[in-house]
UniProtKB/TrEMBL annotation, chain A:
Catalytic function, reaction form: 2 [molybdopterin-synthase sulfur-carrier protein]-C-terminal-Gly-aminoethanethioate + cyclic pyranopterin phosphate + H2O = molybdopterin + 2 [molybdopterin-synthase sulfur-carrier protein]-C-terminal Gly-Gly + 2 H(+)
The protein's name: Molybdopterin synthase catalytic subunit
Source taxon at top rank: Bacteria
Subunit structure comment from the entry: Heterotetramer of 2 MoaD subunits and 2 MoaE subunits. Also stable as homodimer. The enzyme changes between these two forms during catalysis.
E.C. designation(s): 2.8.1.12
Keywords assigned by UniProt, alphabetized: Molybdenum cofactor biosynthesis
Species whose genome carries this gene: Pseudaquabacterium rugosum
Broad EC category: transferase
Protein family (similarity comment): Belongs to the MoaE family.
InterPro entries, per database record: MoaE_sf (IPR036563), Mopterin_biosynth_MoaE (IPR003448)
Automatic annotation (TrEMBL), chain B:
Keywords for this protein: Nucleotide-binding
CDD domains from the UniProt entry: Ubl_MoaD
Protein's organism: Pseudaquabacterium rugosum
Entry similarity comment: Belongs to the MoaD family.
InterPro entries: Beta-grasp_dom_sf, MOCS2A, Mopterin_synth/thiamin_S_b, ThiS/MoaD-like
UniProt xrefs under Gene3D superfamilies: 3.10.20.30
Protein name per UniProt: Molybdopterin synthase sulfur carrier subunit
The UniProt record lists the keyword Heme: no
Superkingdom of origin: Bacteria
Amino acid sequence: MTQTADPVARVRIQQADFDLGAEVAALRAGDPAVGAVCSFVGTVRDRHAPGDPGAVQAMALEHYPGMTERAIEAMIDEALRRFDIRAARVIHRVGDLLPGDQIVLVVVSSAHRGESFRACEFLMDWLKTEAPFWKKETAADGSAQWIDARVSDDAALARWGIRSGNAGACASDATSPLPAPSAAPITPPTA
Amino acid sequence: MSLQIRYFASLREALGPGEAVAHHEGLTLGALRDALIARGGVHAQVLARGRVLRCALDQVMADESAVVRDGAEVAFFPPVTGG
């Protein structure tokens, strides 16, 4: 079940909703070197037309307690190594959600905008394919199904030089060790 | 030696939250998966080769070539779909 959320933790997995404005303010607070804050909010999406029997009625999010926090903490550590950012925070909700609900928040602060834009996208791309969460949709007709991983998400992560076999065809190939601290110059994604 | 297996998402629905199993020295995650498949039944169905699964060893994403130690926590689950 949901861990007790430490309001200042870098990673929070919680059932409760979050307030973007409050999180941005908290991340900036007390750091006069911050000149830019970039945030991303992911929401429960319904790809069906209204009234379609397949329309999403509800979404349940499951995670691997312990591993999830650990994985995202490591992603933030790597973002701090790769980008000239001041701080980053990730909140991800679990449990039962409804269409339109907020699911995930990534907030990054930096001195200048470019670094926080890039770090925010980097964190989301990595989280999508390597953080242990699973979504299950319940449709209006009562049927429920687990959402499939998308190959395009693996491709998004590959732009940063990190390989994911999440949606790939061969599980035994799917290694995704954390990369060594990057010695190579940082190259922004080309796509 | 023994290890604890955990299942998530569709695997948890089929097999339950987890199980403890005894194992020999040098067991890899791939060999463990094969041993579970060899039980037949639901295990064979949901862990079948050809199904894309991921695994973790002690709460870190792992390759099937990873070797478990005594007391390890192993997890099998479908590709992740958060965010």
